[in-house]
Write a structure and sequence with these properties.
heterodimer, A: 142 residues, mainly beta, Lipocalin, 8-stranded antiparallel beta barrel, 8% helix, B: 137 residues, 8-stranded antiparallel barrel, globular, signal (chain A)
Chain lengths: 142, 137
């Protein structure tokens, strides 16, 4: 029984599941660069390459750097601990709405991968996913 | 009119079922296939591989289907919400110990994307990430 308890404590003890970084505690005031992994495909119609998003408390502006398109939207952000966070966004594309989440997993305080997961959008397939890297652009102390 | 009805059913149906996708509450008894994205680089040594993970209550076995190599370890599964969960593992022992997590975001009840994030492992560099698609069998 004692051996089992020790095993269980070890198994669920957080120090055993190594952590070397954390996702930002808040996005308010930060600018993030998102690179998109995919080449053009049915589920990745916008393989733009590089996006930049600036966050205020509840709003964000996304800028497609190479053509200077801007999108605005509202977001909520959950810091889930141990290097994991989830951004839920409602982005406006003219009169149309895109709803998606971005799950962030850090590898350093500035860098990590994300999964983009869209559930509503003006173009089909409006339910789709892709991945890429995020990096924090600001030189602010994290 | 009939076409319109079909289209409405088709797209609202797909939209609803996908938008409401759910990850399993537990991995016990489940088998998951992982297909690693990308091309080979030192930071992505498992690119293009397909891995099979079979879960018991606290332990699991992984087989790299391309080579038949297997490894096993203990795991912790955190279910954050229906669309987001994370598997953290301790795989192997001693110098071959790997510590990594797989974060899952569902697209349907069977498939979605994962982020692999390693902090320690026998194949260097220790600290690396990649992504891919998972399928729950």
């Amino acid at each position: 029984m004692q051996k089992l308890s020790v095993l269980l404590i070890l198994l669920f003890s957080p120090c055993l599941w190594a952590k070397v970084c954390d996702a930002p505690k808040t996005l308010n005031g930060l600018t993030l660069i998102f690179t998109v992994n995919e080449k053009y495909g049915h589920y990745s119609p916008d393989p733009i390459g590089v996006l930049q998003t600036s966050f205020t408390k509840q709003n964000f502006t996304t800028n497609i750097i190479q053509n200077n398109y801007h999108f605005i939207g509202k977001y909520t952000y959950q810091h889930l601990g141990s290097g994991l966070a989830k951004l839920t966004a409602r982005q406006l594309l003219g009169p149309k709405v895109i709803r998606y989440s971005m799950t962030l997993v850090c590898i350093s305080p500035r860098l990590g991968y994300y999964i983009y997961s869209q559930i509503e959008g003006p173009r089909l397939p409006n339910v789709r996913q892709n991945t890429g890297q995020y990096m924090i652009r600001d030189s602010v102390k994290l | 009119m009939r076409l319109l009805t079909i289209l409405i059913i088709l797209f609202t149906g797909i939209n609803t079922s996908y938008a409401n996708c759910q990850l399993p509450r537990t991995l016990e008894g489940k088998t998951i296939l992982l297909r690693v994205d990308g091309t080979y680089t030192p930071n992505n040594p498992m690119a293009d591989s397909v891995q099979e993970l079979k879960f018991k209550k606290h332990s699991y076995q992984v087989t790299i289907l391309n080579t038949g190599i297997t490894a096993s370890g203990t795991y912790r599964y955190e279910y954050f919400d229906p669309k987001l969960a994370r598997l953290s593992v301790r795989e192997g022992k001693g110098k071959k110990l790997s510590l990594y997590s797989e974060t899952f975001v569902c697209e349907t009840n069977r498939v979605g994307y994962f982020i692999f994030s390693q902090t320690q492992g026998p194949i260097k560099p220790d600290i690396r990430q990649n992504t891919g698609v998972y399928i729950i069998e």
